[in-house]
């Protein structure tokens, strides 16, 4: 990797913003479309998806709908891992955002069960088992790409900080504005 690829510039910041918006929207859309396909009238906001009626038409729908977001986030990570393996380091935020999202969701299980925490708990595996597995896989992919591109700690930390900033804006906007997307 050349020196200029290891720097944060306006293009990289905008790509990181796009990665956060794309990743969050794709994740929530996976929940929404799965719920709709299963016959639930769903509501999707910037950072959440839920049945309009307040409950699912069948009990098992909650687990399937909960799994849809993380499954699509893992697929996104794999796609960008392979694109990064053959392409530009500028796509790195699309991979790192997946890791950040699932690590944040895993940590939030201490407060309120999130997708993997809810599924893991319902399956009797303990609250954090699936979260740890998903985050470990995403960390491995991110680590491999970081090493193959010889990314500097400065670039990785800057990318994480940008992802944290943009993700916080998404999350806080969702809490404050409750913007219904679908």
Give a verbal description of the structure:
The chain is globular. It has six helices and two strands; from the N terminus they run αββααααα. 69% of the residues lie in helices and 3% in strands. The N and C termini lie far apart (41 Å). The mean pLDDT is 93. The protein has one domain (3-177). By secondary structure, it is mostly helical. The chain has a two-stranded antiparallel sheet with strand order 1-2.
- The run of helices and strands is HEEHHHHH
Strand residues, percent: under 5%
Radius of gyration: 17 Å
Main pleated sheet: 2 strands, antiparallel
Unreliable stretches covering 5 or more consecutive residues: none
Which strands sit side by side, in order, in the main sheet?
A: 1-2
* Terminal CA distance: 41 Å
- Total helical segments: 6
Q: How many domains?
A: 1
> What structural class do helix, strand and pairing data support?
mainly alpha
The proportion of residues forming helix, as a percent range, comes to 55-70%
Mean pLDDT: 93
- Count of strand segments: 2
